Model the fold of this input.
Amino acid sequence: MHRFHIPVMGIGFTVDTPVKVAHLGISSVISLLDDILIEKMREFYCNKFEIPYNEITTKVEDFRAKRITNYLNLLDKIVKDKFNELKNSATEMGKEFDKYIELLPDFSPIKSKFSEFQKDVQNKKENLQWILNNMKMGDIDVNIMTKLDKYNYLNGEKQLVEFNDAHAALRGFAESNLSSSVVLSAGMNPRLYAYFEKFNDFYPDETGFLKKKITLKVSDYRSALIQGKFFAKKGLWVSEYRIESGLNCGGHAFPTHGFLMGPIMEEFKNNREELYKSTFELYQAALKNLNHFCPETPPYIKITAQGGIGTNQEHEFLLDYYKLDSIGWGSPFLLVPEVVNVDDNTLKLLSNAKEKDLYLSNTSPLGVPFNTLKNNTKDVEKQEWINKGKPGSACPKKYGAINLEEMCTASSKYQRMKIKELDEMNLNEQEYKKAYDKITVKSCICVGLGTSALLVNDLDIKVEGSAVSVCPGPNLAYFDKIVSLKEMVDHIYGRTNLLRNEIRPNMFVNEVILYFNYLESEIQEVADTASEKQKQYFDVFRNNMLSGIDYYFALADKIGIAGDNFNLDLLHNYKKKLQDIEL
Done:
């Protein structure tokens, strides 16, 4: 119905977004990380819609997977009921039916048919029936961060691998009633990928239909091809490759050796047939070997992208030039409380945020750069504990306890241990402070990123507390209005403009600036102590950026680039800065 989707944001911000938008034809993604939050949300929605609720406690066998399955089944039921109610109200032009039609892009066949329906009295009934037959719900997709797959224990004994966090989340999705996609992010996990073989819904039925699909969030073509082939050899098809900017995005950032978004999408565009051919041959052979139904032609592959898109011109350019199927609009939706769970305080911070307030931090316990909003209440709380001489979090959920010590690096237990080791190293004051800050900067984001959903819905926060983490992308700096769903969709489709009045760089130019700043800060971090390996990395990073900038010059000469804010002088300036940078 739409050529945009709402990606996963944090843990709690989009945990129930499908209830708010799926019946209107808009697809969105929810995180499966926090089963404690998921169980609270299931109780909340059971009470709201007067559906019987039976608690799934930690004493129930396989409770994590069961909580997820039951929550997804509940969302599926609520959305289908809302969608059927919407369709049933069509003859009276019910409010939600009107909203569904209003939100559609102007080129939508359904919107055109609705216009006919309003004018053509003679064929009114037939036109309305055609509309109802062609209306679709948005997908209820789920996200699993593949690396967050810690072992779990029962009565002090380590459980089997299938009870690991990511494995249990996959099982929870696979055993649900949903017909949608699991979006895999944060890199390749071969052990988790192999676990997909256990579930029939990922294999085609006798008509070739895939009830459950696999989406890979990728940052370059090579890794997409490797992972696609890995799945194909097991008779599993990757239905979508979701390209995400390394730095011009929300959440965790993956700078990808300086590869820029435009050249990456160009490579996917030029190699789409190769992607089909090389994976489908392996897929067919595996299905035949497994005695599964084998389609004669490859199932469709979607190529989508997200990260830093902010205007209708950029949206349309990506769709048209790179032949993409959908564009992800993430961070701007944090200003749409009708769609996501954002508490009032965080909403105010987000709407007032400028470029200087959105920065790349080291606060994530995963050891990956993390987009952060200045003065978010979780970081304020963290600093208060540091000032009291009690750094670290109580770590009530432990989802980030994936290191060798099986402790989250944001936990007070881990930080006390590391500070004790630091005290024994006899460092000078400056060296000590630098090392101390590196330990204590970590924040309990697996709690903080879910708390807003509890605050918004008036749910118990006894365990979590009231402090909120939020991880918008840099693009949010150019949006400053709290808006409705309709206003945001109208902005996406060019029917209105929600941007600040100041000049916003084109998404490609902005990404170049972000990558340069990242490279410069990484070089400064090691200063005169850089190893030969680090210098080689910096050199590769710089050369990939230079190649990407030359690609943009060639693209501008060839076809021009959407919008008036594609500043070639600024690109020339950053090319020179890159050439002059000392490695």
In short: Residues 356-474 form one domain. The chain has 21 helices and twelve strands. The CA atoms of residues 423 and 432 lie 8 Å apart.
